[in-house]
Specification:
The complex is a heterodimer of chains A (434) and B (296). Chain A has 434 residues and is of the alpha/beta class. In chain A, 45% of the residues lie in helices and 14% in strands. Chain A folds into two domains: 31-146 and 304-350, D-Maltodextrin-Binding Protein, domain 2 (3-Layer(aba) Sandwich), CATH 3.40.190.10; 149-303 and 364-428, Periplasmic binding protein-like II (D-Maltodextrin-Binding Protein, domain 2). Chain A has a five-stranded mixed beta sheet, with helices on both faces. Chain B has 13 helices and two strands. Chain B has helices spanning 2-36, 59-66, 68-100, 107-119, 122-133, 139-146, 159-184, 188-196, 201-212, 214-229, 233-238, 251-261, 265-295; strands at residues 39-42, 52-55. Classes of the chains: A alpha/beta (434), B mainly alpha (296).
């Protein structure tokens, strides 16, 4: 017996040693380009359809070869992985970075300045979205999607109970009460305490402006009146038990949607493909999409949304930009992502919108022309929103304090604390705050 | 002479892997952390011109010590230790003594069953427990509700107990095995003498067996305290599900947050070194107390 154990331990030890050796050999993503043959670049992403798009790119190009690695979504650990890789000097050439945290990566000095490389590419994007990728007068990333907010709802449930898709937030509250009345187990939607990005996009839609710059200093106003209004509104829904409080995309949330007990979802264009259709294939045809409820005049904000950036240490910036340009502005890349990989993202490049509309599969929405809803929503995205340079820190504070909402915490308090901690964080880094 | 020489050669050869790994995975990282902890990154203006690295001396240490979030983490650990250690050690001792008593049947089976949870990696255990804690998913919560007991494992009031519960599940069986092994080393003649003198099972356990495995108990407490300071996996998984378990709930989570969310490797390194220092101090104190009692 003892002998057996020892042999087994020896075997485990040998395996572990092998693993160590293999791990040592695996590093250095951007090293050792061959002089002849294609330039090989590495690409990390989690956006739906990236693997398929990379395959399509590789099949068409002989000068650049892309090695793709699927990583967890940013909030689920993807950003940690990237930050570590950057710090360790083995970052991939091309990285998936969402708008909110692009300024974080830029201010940490992690990205390559693409200003000189994206001359022609820049013109393909609307000014408003391009502005989110230009910081301090330089271009740092190329946008993939515009991610306007919309309202997804279970049309079968709404119709059966005579509830209309709410057009304003007042109507949303009334509809929430009707949903609960129709089925005591059902709720209209969810507040996501762990996903401050979702709240930020609601504040954006309401006309809040968390960050701004004048000259070379930052304004921070996370607790501005519009954001407080949104906080009070959701606080009311939560305290009257009209919405659920669950983590975004959690098992719990999925289970509620699956059981037909969570009957709508305020989300971005990409949410249909990544969150709803992927997890609830049996609910195809039961969902519909409507503009997000508004505060008086139709408006939308952006929730998430991806850009592609190049690591500062990358020695293959030209190849990387070529790949990024193809991925974001080539019709075949868009048809692959939407048609084959069933993503529902809304492209940032204006020329790509009709292409995307054509390859979008409407069956999940019972044939409804969902894409035209996205298009209208994208046109109403409010101008002038800026993300700050410390969204990771801001989001940590928001998340910690939003979490207390079920035990008596106030959402407006969370905003106030995030305001304070964000100003402290910026000052600690030596930035100007006015 | 040559035999001695070759013996020494063999010893060097056999010990080299240990020292190489010890150096590479312990000494060098600690040295690097100490180095990192002395520097800070500063930007200027809007911050888009990149960062410069500045020497800050003990600045990062002072920042961590002045940060209530970091200090609160030690409070959480203290609460955790106070709740966890008595139940864990008490439970493990009870089970080990039961296993060792002459009345026990199917010892091998129970040893294996008790140990089994420990074979599950901590992160998997935490994920399983998160399922078992989540209302709407958990059969346990549902069964408790059927029985008229409403207990929300994920409410902020029950954060500590929910984490302690996971730790107990993982570690009680492991410590039972350690205590049971120690009990096997108790000379049988002493136990027999006690029973000849008329001591029952209970009396033998309390007056003979317990004092004789004191060293094992002290060692377990020591390891558990140090392990508690490094509490990370379980709360990290519960973070987001339980509002009280925030991103800086334990000192280790504080360091993680500083490094990987705030990008402040200096403060993260300083917090880690402070944590290591506290762990060293505590192990010293616990061994001192343990030894004194052992000598008395």
């Amino acid at each position: 017996m003892r002998h057996k154990i020892r042999t087994r331990l020896g075997a485990i030890g040998a395996l572990a040693a092998l693993g160590l050796v293999a791990a040592c050999g695996g590093g250095g993503a951007s090293g050792g380009a061959a002089q002849s043959g294609p330039t090989e670049i590495t690409f990390w992403s989690w956006t739906k359809g990236s693997a398929e798009v990379v395959d399509a790119f590789n099949a068409l190009h002989t000068d650049v070869k892309v090695k793709f690695e699927q990583i967890p979504s940013g909030a689920a650990g993807g950003y940690t992985k990237m930050t570590n890789a950057i710090k360790a000097g083995n970052a991939p050439d091309v990285m998936n970075i969402e708008y909110p945290v692009l300024p974080d990566y830029v201010s940490q000095g992690s990205l390559a300045d693409l200003s000189a490389k994206v001359g022609d590419l820049k013109a393909k994007f609307p000014d408003q979205i391009r502005a989110l990728t230009e910081l301090g007068g330089k271009t740092w990333a190329v946008p993939l999607d515009a991610s306007p907010m919309v309202l997804y709802y279970r049309k079968d449930f709404f119709d059966a109970n005579g509830i209309a898709a709410p057009k304003t937030w007042d109507e949303y509250k009334a509809a929430a009460a009707k949903v609960k009345q129709a089925d005591p187990k059902a709720r209209i939607g969810t507040f996501f305490p762990d996903d401050p990005g979702h709240f930020a996009s609601l504040a954006w839609q309401a006309g809040g402006k968390w960050f701004g710059t004048s000259g070379d200093s930052w304004h921070v106003s996370i607790d501005d009146p519009k954001s407080k209004q949104v906080a009070d509104y959701w606080q009311g829904l939560i305290s009257e038990d009209l919405v659920r409080v669950q983590s975004a995309f959690s098992q719990e949330w999925n289970a509620g949607v699956k059981a037909g007990e969570t009957v709508s979802y305020v989300g971005a264009s990409w949410g249909a493909g990544s969150a709803l259709r992927a997890n609830q294939p049996d609910q195809a045809g039961k969902w519909a999409v409507a503009p997000i409820p508004h505060w008086g005049t139709p408006a939308s904000g952006m929730y998430g949304g991806s850009t592609f950036a190049v690591a500062k240490d990358s020695k293959k910036v030209d190849a990387a930009v070529k790949f990024i340009g193809w991925m974001t502005t080539d019709a075949q890349a868009i048809t692959t992502r939407l048609g084959i990989a069933k993503s529902t993202m809304y492209p940032a490049a204006a020329d790509m919108v009709p292409v995307a509309a054509k390859s979008f599969d409407n069956s999940f929405f019972g044939g409804q022309d969902a894409y035209s809803v996205y298009k209208d929503a994208a046109a109403t995205i409010k101008n002038g929103w800026t993300w700050g340079p410390s969204m990771f820190a801001t989001n940590s504070t928001l998340k910690d304090n939003f979490g207390t909402v079920t035990s008596g915490g106030a959402l407006t308090d969370a905003l106030r604390k995030a305001q304070q901690s964000t100003v402290d964080e910026l000052k600690k880094r030596g930035l100007n705050v006015s | 002479m040559s035999a001695k020489k070759s013996q020494r050669g063999a010893a060097t050869l056999l010990m080299a892997p240990f020292f190489a790994l010890f150096l590479g995975t312990l000494v060098v990282p600690i040295g690097y952390a100490a180095y990192l902890s002395l520097f800070t990154e500063r930007s200027s203006g809007l911050g888009f011109g990149g960062t410069e690295t500045l020497f800050t001396g003990l600045g990062n240490y002072l920042h961590a010590l002045a940060d209530p979030a970091f200090r609160d983490g030690f409070g959480v650990i203290a609460g955790y230790v106070l709740g966890y250690i008595p139940v864990m050690v008490g439970g493990a001792l009870l089970l080990a003594l039961l296993l060792d008593s002459t009345l026990a049947r199917a010892k091998r089976f129970f040893q294996l069953t008790l140990y089994l949870p420990h074979a599950v990696p901590g992160i998997i255990a935490a994920i399983i427990w998160l399922y078992l804690y989540t209302p709407g998913l958990s059969p346990v919560v549902a069964a408790m509700r059927e029985g008229g007991l409403t207990w929300n494992f994920l409410s902020s009031d029950h954060a500590l107990s929910s984490v302690i519960n996971i730790s107990l599940w993982e570690w009680v069986g492991y410590n039972v095995v350690i205590f049971y092994a120690a009990l096997q080393a108790v000379p049988r003649e002493v136990v027999e003498a006690a029973s000849v003198d008329g001591a029952g099972e209970l009396r033998t356990a309390l007056s003979i067996k317990l004092p004789m495995i004191r060293a094992a108990v002290v060692m377990t407490v020591l390891f558990t305290v140090i392990g508690a300071l490094q509490l990370f996996t379980e709360p990290m998984i519960l973070n987001g599900a339980n509002p009280a378990v925030n991103t800086t709930w334990t000192p280790n989570m504080y360091a993680y947050d500083a490094a990987f969310r705030r990008g402040d490797y200096g403060v993260a390194a300083a917090a880690s070194i402070l944590l290591a220092f506290v762990a060293a101090l505590l192990s010293f104190v616990v061994t001192r107390i343990g030894n004194r009692k052992g000598a008395a």
